[in-house]
C-alpha cells in the first residue's frame, strides 16, 4: 500500500503564504492522480485541488482558484500545494490523497470516494 505523509503546515497571517508537501512511499503513485482535501472543525471533508498522473491537468475548488497552485514532482514522488493570499477561511487540516484509478487523462474528480489512500493530515491556521 502507498503511504502518504503531509508536511509544511503551520501558522500564517492573512495575506501570507504557505507551501504544503506530500511524500509517497511503500509503493508507486506515479501513474495515479493526486488530490488535496481539507476539513475544518464541524465541517465535512472538502475538495481543494487535484492533478493527474502526468501533471498536465489540474482542477481547483472555486474557493481557492487563483490563490492556490497544485504541482507534482514525478522523480521525487512528491506533490505540493502552494497557498498564496491566505484567508482565515482556509484554516483546516489538509490531507493529500491518491486517485484510485490509474492513467486518467484529466484531473481526478472531487468526491472523496474517488481516492483510496490518505495521509495523516497537517494543520493550517490563518490569523487575521
Care to describe what's here?
The chain has 128 residues and is mainly β. 0% of the residues lie in helices and 52% in strands. It is built from no helices and eleven strands. It has strands at 3-7, 10-13, 18-25, 32-39, 46-51, 58-60, 68-73, 78-83, 92-102, 115-118, 122-127. The strands form two sheets. Strands 2, 4, 5, 6, 9, 10 and 11 form a seven-stranded mixed β-sheet that branches. A four-stranded antiparallel β-sheet has the order 1-3-8-7, with no helix packed on it. Strand 4 (32-39) and strand 5 form a beta hairpin.
Keywords:
about 50% strand, mainly beta, about 130 residues, 11 strands, four-stranded antiparallel β-sheet, about 0% helix
Question: Helices, strands, pairings?
Answer:
Layout: E1 3-7, E2 10-13, E3 18-25, E4 32-39, E5 46-51, E6 58-60, E7 68-73, E8 78-83, E9 92-102, E10 115-118, E11 122-127
Parallel strand pairs: 2-11
Antiparallel strand pairs: 1-3, 3-8, 4-5, 4-9, 5-6, 7-8, 9-10, 9-11
Amino acid at each position: 500500500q502507498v503511504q502518504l505523509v503531509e508536511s509544511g503546515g503551520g501558522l500564517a497571517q492573512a495575506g501570507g503564504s504557505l507551501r504544503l508537501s506530500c511524500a509517497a512511499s511503500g509503493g508507486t503513485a506515479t501513474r495515479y492522480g493526486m488530490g488535496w482535501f481539507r476539513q475544518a472543525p464541524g465541517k465535512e471533508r472538502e475538495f481543494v485541488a487535484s492533478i493527474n498522473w502526468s501533471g498536465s491537468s489540474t482542477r481547483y475548488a472555486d474557493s481557492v482558484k487563483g490563490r492556490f497552485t497544485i504541482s507534482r514532482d514525478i522523480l521525487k514522488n512528491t506533490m505540493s500545494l502552494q497557498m498564496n493570499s491566505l484567508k482565515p477561511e482556509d484554516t483546516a487540516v489538509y490531507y493529500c490523497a491518491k486517485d484510485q484509478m490509474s492513467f486518467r487523462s484529466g484531473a481526478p474528480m472531487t468526491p472523496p470516494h474517488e481516492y483510496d489512500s490518505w495521509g495523516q493530515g497537517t494543520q493550517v491556521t490563518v490569523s487575521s
